[in-house]
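Explain this record to help learners:
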Amino acid sequence: MLKRRYSSTGSGGRASRRKNIFAGFDEFGFAIFKTKSREGTVQHRCHEYSYPKADDGKVKGLCELLSSWDDADDTCIVKVACFVRTGIPPELRGRVWKCLLGIHTLQESSPFIYQECLKGIRRQLVDLGVSEFGIGSAIATLSEAENEMESKKNTSQSAASSSEFSDVVLFRQIALDLQRSFPTHRSLMGDAPEAIEGQAKLFRVLIAYAIYNPWIGYSQGMSYIAAMLLMNLSEEEAFWALVALLEGPNYLAGLFDHSLDKIQHNAKVFQQLLKHRMPRLCQHIEDLGVTTLHFVTPWFLTLFTSLPCWDTVLAVWDHIILNGIVVVFTTGLCILQQLESRLLEMSDVSLLLPTLLRVPVDVSRHSVLVPALWRSEVHKWEIDCMQSLVLEEEGEEPVPGKGGKQGSLKRKKSKKEKRNLAGANGLDAKKPAQFTNRENAISRSATC
């Protein structure tokens, strides 16, 4: 029996005339819902996939490559890049991601022990009277504990009570986000045993990462990334893959922080790129009062998992894991290129913004967007140039929180601050040799 309720499109009287009918799961584990209304039967998500199916020879060749994988061998990257271009077989995707992200090496070189971390998390949950296998239903309990601790903070300022309060706040925030993360995927949907275990895994991975890296902790969007990893990897592999993605200098090190300053910076970089590549569309969007921050934030923070065609999402992720954060910018630009003509015809923000936030199925199809993505290319030097423009603009902004005359003063960012922002993008010129080697190898695979 599924207890979660799923909203249908429309509102008010229209919604009351529609009824959701569960019709099973598709090949990627997403629930197929049909809505019966006066207009007929409507699908909530696209379940008609157009990704190329791999033949037995390709599967065998990729298996052999992964079995003999060597992180230091450029030819491995060249070969796997060819497979990524032509399509990774779904059953081998997890193995490809593990190799490209270097999960085994990362785990072996770290003193952090995932299972030991989970023991500590479970002790805290027991103290709160909460089970990891019902974390979604424990939100009320966590809220009560949070309120009680907050009231005690005025009388006790001990480090221990402050730390406990922060943990409860973290538990509650992640519990809330679990309900929003792919609620129609079989591993997270409802109260079936598989879903209860899936929600517990996602909770554990996210809490463990917040403990592993308290400087980043937990922030908006991470639950989607972790959930995607859990769909393709084991729990502990998903944790280390999350570490690799969020901290790798070639990946998402420049997107996540508590203040969201990094994503705002990257949105500005994307806006400069859009202005450079598609000036007419950029001006049109600005004229309607929409900034890139409105749509780039959900695109980037969830790595395009909101696209309605899941085979396309997986192909985009393959591309990102192979080539890094530059592909995030390329994908955003490619979507806008596909939508440009219809966006230019829209004169109302109420039409334009929903189109950007919920990219239409016809644009999202694998057979449309993925070939266009591989034909598109955003060069590193372009991002570097756009970033320089943004840093110059930000260097002239008022110093925040100074008040009075000082609040109106403007200053240049220091060289150190600029380096920090530049490095945060994952596009800094000083990359580890392994990523430079990967770029060189991938460039040689362009003829696949």
Q: What stands out?
A: The two ends are 48 Å apart (CA to CA). Residues 159-178 form the longest helix (20 residues).
